[in-house]
Design goal:
Length: about 300
């Protein structure tokens, strides 16, 4: 029998760390299992300029500060990865790294979602060095530069509208022959003099040494398939990290995101969820939203321990 915790939090992004901070305020014995990538997508988001309290802060540094605060109020940390969770009579048995197990009365799933990657070998090396997956986070960094955004959906169109406020030139690279976006966003885009949409075009490679330098396109632009850029944003959707939710029988929506109520409860008693893994974000995946949901999930965990509901 492993150690019994009041709360076990899976994930160390804004949602999980915020949940740990609030759990500490409730005096819950809490363990946060960080997972493979501490800080989640935020930790590789480069400069963040829209988190309250900071004019600007590196994404990794923001996560470190949240971790320090969670530790300060008593949360324990494990740098491993949760590989299995099962429900039992006393709560939940959580397996870490395939071998170590602990017990918990409640669980918060905060594993987030992972941005769809392009699949190029150099992609990880260039992430945060001219290559980004969050236009909202990083667009202001590229003021006066030529950038490109990959994607043909509403998120890429909104990203292009935002980026056009800062960049000198924005290329929106769409694989299809049209953009699928909300009419208001599409209309705004069409009025942007510094945005050029490249239809029926794909990115065949990304190149750079220390930073992104250029991309290779499937067809030429201005006479060349090479396009030199100051920055590249990938807005082709996300994949929810829902494997543990499936193990527990947690209800998912048709896209694979966890169904939660306004208090971040799932259909499984004692299992809460918060952050980008949840359907409650409605596509607005921001640290401030994830942090708020983490605080709500911790509150619901406390109430469950106290009342069984």
């Amino acid at each position: 029998m492993g150690i019994m915790y009041d709360l076990l939090i899976v994930g160390s992004g804004a949602a999980g760390l915020s949940a740990g901070i609030y759990a500490g305020r409730y005096l819950l014995k809490t363990l946060i299992v960080q997972g493979k990538n501490f800080g989640g997508e935020t930790a590789v988001a480069a400069l963040i300029e829209n988190y309250p309290g900071y004019i600007e802060i590196d994404g990794y540094d923001l996560m470190v500060k949240m971790k320090e605060q969670a530790k300060h109020v008593g949360a324990e940390f494990n740098e491993g990865e949760v590989t299995a969770i099962t429900k039992d009579a006393d709560g939940f048995t959580v397996t870490i790294n395939g071998k170590d197990s602990v017990q918990a009365k409640t669980v918060i799933l905060a594993m987030g979602s992972r941005r769809r990657r392009l699949g190029f070998p150099i992609e990880d090396k260039l992430t945060g060095k001219g290559l980004s997956y969050c236009t909202t986070c990083d667009a202001p960094i590229y003021k006066g530069k030529t950038i490109a955004i990959i994607g043909g959906g509403d998120s890429s169109v909104k990203g292009a509208n935002l980026a056009a406020e800062y960049a000198e030139k924005v290329y929106l690279i769409a694989r299809g022959d049209k953009l699928i976006a909300e009419p208001v966003n599409y209309e705004r885009l069409m009025k942007r003099p510094n945005v050029e949409v490249l239809y029926e075009t794909e990115v065949k490679d990304v190149l750079g040494e220390e930073r992104l330098e250029k991309i290779i396109l499937s067809k030429p632009v201005n006479g060349s398939t090479e396009l030199k850029l100051g920055g590249l944003f990938v807005e082709i959707g996300a994949i929810p990290n829902n494997e543990l939710a499936k193990q527990l029988g947690v209800e998912l929506d048709k896209r694979g995101y966890i169904e939660v109520d306004p208090l971040m409860k799932t259909n499984v008693p004692g299992v809460l969820a918060a952050g980008d893994l949840c359907n409650e974000t409605e596509g607005f995946k921001q640290d401030i939203v994830a942090a708020a949901q983490g605080s709500m999930a911790a509150t619901s965990a406390y109430q469950f321990i106290e009342t069984g509901k």
